[in-house]
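TICKET: design request
STATUS: open
ATTACHED STRUCTURE:
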């Protein structure tokens, strides 16, 4: 039975500025342009002419992230408001959704989803989007499609937060925003909370997930809130498990899957390296604590009281070996961590095509994980 969203149905027809663009530092990035054009559209000749007229020599692109984020030689940052590929939103009306703001000063919001038909409180599934900490948004159609399917097939309230993006806002800004979104959600658990949430969400059955960069955020949240002091920050909210979908980890020593990654991969080595160079603090290596959980300056994980964690990897993903090693090291510490590998799948297969057979298999694995409160079988 279909239902109508209480808010936000028109959002996908509007041009939404990605988070963080309005907060750019003038050093070293001194100009920001936002292109609010249709999805997959090129930069217009008029815009190029404007840029050329502002300088004696037209600046050139020095970093290009999927045609969505362009960094110019003069420090200017150009962002489109949507992905470089056109994807229709498949909303059959069985899930309702709305947007909410969790950090007004920074203009950061999240999108909330819930199944229309429900007869009890539902588990909560956080989803932090990917994009190498440089691109992506909760409003993008591929993210919308994935979250609609999550809510419908998991029978869950889905919370999809945005976070500040690099290079305007370098790490750990995105990680801090991920924590702020979870703390905002925890603040809704009381009598003064948003009834749209409180009448549907079971605040004692929360699962934190993210794909790629969002998976990295999930790791850092597991560390921050994996202690008695951390849990006290969340009040009545109880995190039952974490799901890291092809987490975006790095390190100065190449893994085999990184070294052998083909250039035509969806996430190839040049793009992977570019994301880290643009998102980490200036001068940092990929052994920085934000990128490498086992780097020389990263916090020790032995004392972390880790909730059950499911790590999802793709057999053809550049990040496959690093994620498998991450899970193996945590298991060696006695942590409840399981790995689910999808043979032949590339990075982000579940958002590239949420209706593929592999995506359906992932949904079944996620549902088992949630329904059993963190079992891997």
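STATUS: resolved
RESOLUTION: sequence designed for all positions
ATTACHED SEQUENCE:
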């Amino acid at each position: 039975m279909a239902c109508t969203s209480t808010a936000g149905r028109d959002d996908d027809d509007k041009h939404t500025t990605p988070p963080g663009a309005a907060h750019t530092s003038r050093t070293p990035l001194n100009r920001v342009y936002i292109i609010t054009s249709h999805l997959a559209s090129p930069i217009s000749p008029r815009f190029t002419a404007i840029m050329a007229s502002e300088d004696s020599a037209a600046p050139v692109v020095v970093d290009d992230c999927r045609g969505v984020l362009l960094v110019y030689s003069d420090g200017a940052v150009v962002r489109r408001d949507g992905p470089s590929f056109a994807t229709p939103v498949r909303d059959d009306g069985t899930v309702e959704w709305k947007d909410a703001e969790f950090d007004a000063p920074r203009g950061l919001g999240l999108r909330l989803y819930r199944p229309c038909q429900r007869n009890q409180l539902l588990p909560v599934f956080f989803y932090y989007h990917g994009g190498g900490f440089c691109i992506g948004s909760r409003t993008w159609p591929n993210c919308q499609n994935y979250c609609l399917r999550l809510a419908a097939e998991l029978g869950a309230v889905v919370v999809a937060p945005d976070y500040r993006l690099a290079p305007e806002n370098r790490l750990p800004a995105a990680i801090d925003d991920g924590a702020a979104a979870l703390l905002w959600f925890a603040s809704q658990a009381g009598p003064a909370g948003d009834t749209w949430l409180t009448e549907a969400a079971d605040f004692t059955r929360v699962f934190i997930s993210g794909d790629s960069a969002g998976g990295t955020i999930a790791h850092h949240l597991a560390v921050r809130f994996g202690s008695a002091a951390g849990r006290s920050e969340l009040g009545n909210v109880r995190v039952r498990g974490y799901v890291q979908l092809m987490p975006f980890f790095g390190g100065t020593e190449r893994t085999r899957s990184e070294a052998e990654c083909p250039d035509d991969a969806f996430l190839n080595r040049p793009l992977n390296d570019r994301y880290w160079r643009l998102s980490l603090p200036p001068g940092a290596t990929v052994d920085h604590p934000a990128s490498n959980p086992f780097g020389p300056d990263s916090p020790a994980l032995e004392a972390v009281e880790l909730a059950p964690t499911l790590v999802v990897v793709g057999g053809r993903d550049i990040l496959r070996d690093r994620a498998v090693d991450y899970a193996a090291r945590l298991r060696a510490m006695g942590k409840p961590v399981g790995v689910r590998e999808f043979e032949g799948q590339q990075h982000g297969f579940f958002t590239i095509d949420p209706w593929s057979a592999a995506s359906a298999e992932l949904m079944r694995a996620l549902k088992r994980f949630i329904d059993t409160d963190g079992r891997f079988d």
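CLOSING REMARK: The two ends are 32 Å apart (CA to CA). The CA atoms of residues 115 and 152 lie 6 Å apart.
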